[in-house]
TrEMBL record:
Belongs to the RelE toxin family. This is Type II toxin-antitoxin system RelE/ParE family toxin. Keywords: Toxin-antitoxin system. It comes from the Bacteria. InterPro entries: RelE/ParE_toxin, RelE/ParE_toxin_dom_sf, TA_system_RelE-like_toxin. Signal peptide: none annotated. It holds the Pfam family ParE_toxin. The keyword Transcription does not apply.
Length: 93
């Protein structure tokens, strides 16, 4: 199972709205890509790399375009925690 936290949903919505200002089409494509990649995690829990700032095998990230989608593995379930731009400073979740 893959579930999105409220924070992750809000992050995706903010990214979508920001991109939509310049390109509604591209905004939809970016949103689809995040959803598509997150669905893969139900079968491949450890698809992403360990987040270096955390060094916890259960906190991982996928790079999608210029963003880091941070997720946590709990009992064979995946929780999308947040999405941050790759140039943003990471702070513990």
């Amino acid at each position: 199972m893959v579930a999105w936290t409220d924070k992750a949903k809000s992050s995706l919505r903010n990214i979508f709205n920001y991109i939509k200002e310049d390109s509604p089409f591209y905004a939809k494509e970016v949103k689809k890509k995040f959803i598509f990649e997150s669905k893969k995690l139900s079968d491949f829990l450890k698809l992403g790399r360990i987040v270096p700032e955390v060094e916890d095998d259960n906190i991982r990230e996928l790079f999608i375009y210029s963003y880091r989608m941070i997720y946590q593995i709990v009992d064979n379930n995946v929780f999308i925690l947040t999405i941050i731009h790759s140039i943003q400073e990471f702070s513990n979740l």
